[in-house]
Amino acid sequence: MMYADFYRRSVVTPEQFWRDEAALIDWNTPFSQVLDYAKPPFARWFVDGKTNLCHNAVDRWCETQGDQPALIAISTETNTERSYSFKELHVEVQRWAAMMQALGVRKGDRVLIYMPMIAEAAFAMLGCARIGAVHSVVFGGFAANSLASRIDDARPVLIVSADAGSRNGKAIAYKPLLDEAIALSSAKPSRVLLVDRGLAPMQRVEGRDVDYAALSAAHLEARVPVTWLESNEPSYILYTSGTTGKPKGVQRDVGGYAVALAASMKYNFCGRAGETFFATSDIGWVVGHSYIVYGPLIAGMATIMYEGLPICPDPGIWWSIVEKYKVTRMFSAPTAIRVLRKQSPEFMRRHDTSSLQALYLAGEPLDETTSAWIAGELGVPIIDNYWQTETGWPILSIAKGVEDLPTRLGSPGVAMYGYKVRLVNETTGADCAANEKGVVMIEGPLPPGCMQTVYGDDQRFVDTYWTQDGDAMLYSTFDWGVQDADGYYFILGRTDDVINVAGHRLGTREIEESITSHPNVSEVAVVGVQDQVKGQVAVAFAILKDANLGTAEQDIMAVVDRQLGAVARPARVYFVTQLPKTRSGKLLRRSIQAICEGRSPGDLTSIEDPSSLQQIQRALFASL
Ligand code: AMP
């Protein structure tokens, strides 16, 4: 089929298009209406239809391929490999569902999952989905303050966690961070369920903390039927950073998400039931939700969960996994490939990767050098895909499962089915001409699978993302883009204060708030600066209250580590006595960023004091 026709049908007659795609999943009760867009920008998909994510990911496959692998959890940190068939996974998720019910979790309740990349994390997610509890997974690399703000917002009745994660052979204790986060939080959960991996000692809080080993014994063979959910009931919340310091809870539905994932597994990732999918992300990110846990399983594929570094025990580890499990489709991030490119290719060439049919990369811009190198090494198509936590599945890519359109270096591809992508001129609001830079926007309704709202705050959803354009409403991705005459898009960076470090999305405001909590910092500006491996790194320029106190770069980094986690730690902290601002007091972050990257600071007509820029320059220069 021609992709152009497929795409046209998806946006001209979306209801017919998605009605057909809805047949990719199981429904307990059919829907009465494909789309309800009576209250834009809120889109309700598959109204009245009842389904369940856990049923579609697990139960559905037990009859036809119950003994085939479903979940393969590999840890090169603890040297363990555990494989669960669909039938075994079915037992595990029911056990988890039963345990959560025993701890008082009911349909609609939130369960916060703060876990390393172990199989139990996936069991907990699927267990929630099974009983209609709303999970909120928080990335294990986040520290107490980040975790506390998410606890406050989600108000979970239960937190699921573990003694520790592990990185490069070193245990990272989770429990003290969790206890500190709960102490900081104003919405304390009544129960905490803990998996003990034997990596770090845990102090139990009497009456609140429950051990997995003890509780599971009573629920080993539990039978917990699926709770059928109306398609628009919430399935999960996933927090993401934005312009303010307060993370937004991206809320997703059940039916629309299941259908969108099933469609993307067919048309984008081209995975067949029985094959093995390997996404190297983490369950704390959206890729982990969509393409480690739900997507592959909904497609009947085995999915690999990997805990460890891409270069340990040696840089051939991922390719040895591909070889051993005959992975057909792999999903990673450009950063990881850049790390591997720095290693000897010998490690990769030792392994037979002939099962692999395509490598998908997302999360940050894919540069031509990285793309060309890995394509040469693997000899398979490299498929860039552009999307965000909010959308849950690709906005731009090449849907090879529909038509084998060529990829174009530097471009993630064309608009995916269901997405009415428009490039809009920032000042005039008019649609851009070919090769004209604009903001990447999507005309509502967003397709199935995209966020329903900001958890608990419909108004924030509307105010943050949407603008009215005549009769239409436009959703902003907050990314700059440009489209060539053939319809291929190129992404040119964020329009807001969000930065992308090694594929991880971070808000500079959150980092600034953390740094200013240091008693000797009066003001700070954090910007994202280009980095050869990580894409971007955070760099901070701080003003001290008292220069004589001798506050060092390390002190400030330690504050960020402790509050937000090492992922948010700035790569450098420079000290200045003034920050560039407009006359109305707005920080000129883009000018600071430009100077850091050796570019011109841009239009400075509104700057209050140009000498502040020279300070930035001098600080950078002095460090060379
Ligand atoms: P997240 O919500 O963490 O997935 O981050 C989404 C953001 O990452 C997007 O808004 C883009 O700024 C960036 N991004 C994701 N994928 C790509 C890609 N393939 N090319 C360029 N930028 C990307």
Describe the protein.
The protein is an alpha/beta fold and 624 residues long. The chain has 2 domains: 386 residues, 3-Layer(aba) Sandwich (Rossmann fold), CATH 3.40.50; 121 residues, ANL, C-terminal domain (GMP Synthetase, Chain A, domain 3). The chain contains 19 helices and 33 strands. The protein has an 8-stranded mixed β-sheet, sandwiched between helices. Strands 5-4-17-16-18-19-20 form a 7-stranded mixed β-sheet, sandwiched between helices. Strands 23, 24, 26, 27 and 28 form a 5-stranded antiparallel β-sheet that branches. A hairpin with a 3-residue loop joins strand 31 and strand 32. Helix 3 packs antiparallel against helix 4, helix 9 crosses helix 10 and helix 18 runs parallel beside helix 19. The chain is globular. The site of adenosine monophosphate has 19 residues, from strand 20, strand 27 and strand 28. Adenosine monophosphate binds next to strand 20, strand 27 and strand 28. One of its GO terms (biological process) is propionate catabolic process, 2-methylcitrate cycle.
Q: How big is the Rg?
A: 24 Å
Q: What proportion of the residues form beta strands (DSSP E)?
A: 25-35%
**Could you say which structural class the secondary elements and strand pairing correspond to?**
alpha/beta
Heterogens = adenosine monophosphate
What CATH calls the topology of the largest domain is: Rossmann fold
Mean pLDDT, rounded to whole units? 96
Give the overall shape, derived from the CA principal axes: globular
Number of domains: 2
The parts where pLDDT drops under 50 for at least 5 residues are: none
Q: Give me the side-by-side strand order of the main sheet.
A: 12-11-8-6-7-14-15-25
Largest sheet geometry: 8 strands, mixed
CATH homologous superfamily caption of the largest domain: ANL, N-terminal domain
Instruction: Supply the CATH architecture of the largest domain.
Output: 3-Layer(aba) Sandwich
CATH class placement of the largest domain: Alpha Beta
Terminal CA distance reads 56 Å
Total DSSP helices: 19
Helix content: 25-40%
Number of strands: 33
